[in-house]
Structures are given as structure tokens and as C-alpha cells.
């Protein structure tokens, strides 16, 4: 199956399937009874060749903004973020806002989406955010891990190559 078809067939359900987390589990100094550990972001674009969209991506950690960037998605591409300040068992929220003169008209209610630790729940040990950017819609969902939050790898592929939606 070519990458374009793979992008279309791996939908929202695959994005939110159970998976290990991205960078190796809870930090040693984190409270084991606290919220699940946030470990990273992976956003894929399923845009047509020659299409581009701009997004503002922000991450709040424990109520304070920790990260902000603007990213240009072009065609089939990927944005990923994994950093040392992640991995604590504190509340995190990630906001994806589509920006530009056409954003509100093109994306409607999808122009801004936020996903947070409270959306994941406390029964999981770790989580990371996966998202998809399309021509006129966005999707954000968590991938969660249990007790043995096994690392996922970020390779050069714009999307996971297997049907389960995990790397």
C-alpha cells in the first residue's frame, strides 16, 4: 500500500490505540501515584503534494507555557517533539491551532484543538499525543502505555508503517 493510501486508511481509531510511550517512562523523581507522564508529540500531515498549512503548537506544563512554535506542514510530513523537560507526572496540555488568513474558514471548529493530561485519565502510566493535519480537518488523540512504557522510535517515515498505528 502506498503512503497516501496508508494515511487515509489509518484513521482516528489507529491514532488512539494503546501503545508504549515515546521516551522511556516515568522519571525516577516523579510521584508514582500522580498523573500519567507526558512524553512527546507526533503530528502527521496528510496534505496533497504542493499543499501547505501553518500551525501554532503550544505545550503547557503544570499551568505554565513551556513550549511554543509555528510549524509549516507541507504535503506528507511530520512534526515531533520530545525534550528533557517532559516526563514528569504533572498536568500537561497541548494546543494545536491552525493559523493564517484562511484558517478559520477552512478548518471551522477544528481551527484550534487542545488535549491534556486530564483527557487521558490516571489509569495509565504514560501518554504521548498523536495528531493528523488534513486539508480541512485536524485530529488529536493520545496513545497511552501501561506499566512498562516501552519507548517508541521516531524514524524517517511520516506515518507508522503497520496497521495498528504504533511505531
Describe this structure in words.
The protein has 167 residues and is mainly beta. The chain has one domain (3-145): Immunoglobulin-like (Sandwich). It contains 4 helices and 8 strands, in the order ααβββββαβαββ. The strands form 2 sheets. A 4-stranded mixed sheet has the order 4-1-7-8. It has a 4-stranded antiparallel sheet with strand order 3-2-5-6.
Topology, please?
Layout: H1 3-9, H2 12-15, E1 37-46, E2 52-61, E3 64-74, E4 76-81, E5 92-99, H3 103-107, E6 112-116, H4 117-120, E7 126-133, E8 138-145
Parallel strand pairs: 1-7
Antiparallel strand pairs: 1-4, 2-3, 2-5, 5-6, 7-8
Amino- and carboxy-terminal Cα gap = 17 Å
Helix/strand structural class:
mainly beta
Mean pLDDT: 74
CATH top level assignment? Mainly Beta
CATH topology: Immunoglobulin-like
Name the helicity range: 10-25%
Whole-angstrom Rg: 15 Å
Shape designation: elongated
* Low-pLDDT residue spans: 3-26, 152-167
Number of helical stretches of at least 4 residues:
4
Task: Report the β-strand fraction as a percent range.
Answer: 35-45%
Structural domains: how many: 1
> Reading side by side through the largest sheet, how are the strands ordered?
4-1-7-8
Give the biggest beta sheet.
4 strands, mixed
Question: What is the CATH architecture assignment?
Answer: Sandwich
Strand element count: 8
Order of helices and strands: HHEEEEEHEHEE
Amino acid at each position: 500500500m502506498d503512503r497516501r493510501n496508508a494515511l487515509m486508511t489509518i484513521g482516528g481509531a489507529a491514532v488512539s490505540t494503546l501503545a508504549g510511550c515515546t521516551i522511556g517512562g516515568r522519571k525516577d523523581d516523579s510521584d508514582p501515584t500522580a498523573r500519567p507522564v507526558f512524553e512527546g508529540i507526533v503530528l502527521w500531515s496528510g496534505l496533497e503534494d504542493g499543499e501547505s498549512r501553518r500551525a501554532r503548537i503550544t505545550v503547557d506544563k503544570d499551568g505554565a507555557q513551556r513550549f511554543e512554535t509555528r510549524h509549516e506542514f507541507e504535503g506528507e510530513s511530520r512534526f515531533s517533539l520530545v525534550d528533557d523537560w517532559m516526563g514528569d507526572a504533572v498536568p500537561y496540555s497541548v494546543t494545536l491551532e491552525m493559523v493564517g488568513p484562511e484558517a478559520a474558514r477552512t478548518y471551522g471548529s477544528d481551527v484550534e484543538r487542545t488535549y491534556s493530561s486530564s483527557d487521558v485519565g490516571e489509569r495509565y502510566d504514560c501518554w504521548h499525543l498523536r495528531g493528523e493535519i488534513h486539508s480541512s480537518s485536524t485530529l488529536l488523540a493520545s496513545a497511552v502505555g501501561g506499566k512498562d512504557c516501552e519507548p517508541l522510535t521516531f524514524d524517517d517515515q511520516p506515518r507508522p508503517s503497520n496497521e495498528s498505528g504504533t511505531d
